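An instance follows:
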Amino acid sequence: MDISTLIGWVMAVGLVVWGIGFDKLGNFWDLQSLAIVLGGAIAALIASYPFRLLKEVPKHILICFRGGKYNVPKLVDQLVDLAMLARQSGLLALEEKAEEIKDPFFKQSLLKIVDANDPDKVREMLEKELDDMAARHDEGAGIYEKGSAYAPAFGMIGTLVGLINMLKGMNLGDSSGASNLGQDMSVALITTFYGSALANVLFQPIAKKLRVRQAEEELYCSTIVEGVMAIQAGVNPQMLREQLLSCMKQSQQKKLLLKAAKNSGAGGGEG
C-alpha cells in the first residue's frame, strides 16, 4: 500500500489549519462559497464527462493508494525463465506456463507467440493494446486535471459574486447594505481560497499519482512486449535479461545482474 498521497493530504490540511489558527477556523467556513466552488466544479465535470468515466472515480482513488503491483525485476526473472524453457522445449511448452499467469496482458502476449503468429503482426497487436490502455489512462487522469482547472475558475466566479453583491450593497446607502458588506466580502475571498485549495490539494495530486501509476503500468507492459518478442525470436536468456534491464537505473541493473549471477552460480554448484 502506498500512503504517500494520504500523508501529503494530511500534511497539507494540517499546515493550512496551523497557519490559519485553530481559533480562527470559523472565519474560513462559508457554505455558500463551498457550494459555488465544490458544487460548481463537480457540476462542470459531470457536464464534461460521460458517466462511464465518472463512475470510475472510486477506483481511481484506490489506485492512488495501491503500491507494488508492477514489479519489473520480478517480471524480468519470469521472462528469462520462460526464454530458457522456450529454448529447451520450444514455444509450445509456454502454453502451460501461460495458464498459470494471472496478469491478462502477460498471458495473452505469451499465447500469441505460442500460436506461431507472425512476429510483426504480434508486435502490432500488442502495441495497439498498449495505445488503447494509454488512452484509457489519459481519460481517467484528465478528469482530475480538468477539475484542477474548474475549481479556481469557480473560485473566481464566487469572488465576482461577492464583489458584485458588496458593490450593490454599498450603492444602497442604507444600514442593510453596510451590514452585509463584511459577509459579501468574505464570500468574495473565501471562494478564491476554496478554489485554490481544491485544485492544489485534491485534484492535482490525484492526477499526478494516476500519471505515475500509468507510467509504471506502461513500463511493465512494454517490458512484457519486448520480452515475449525476444522469446519468439530465440534471444539468449542472459542477453534478454540485460536488454530488459536497460530501462532501469544503472545501480538497479548492477544489483539485479549480480543477484542473477549468484543464483546461476548456486544452481551450477548444486548440479
About this structure: The chain has twelve helices and no strands.
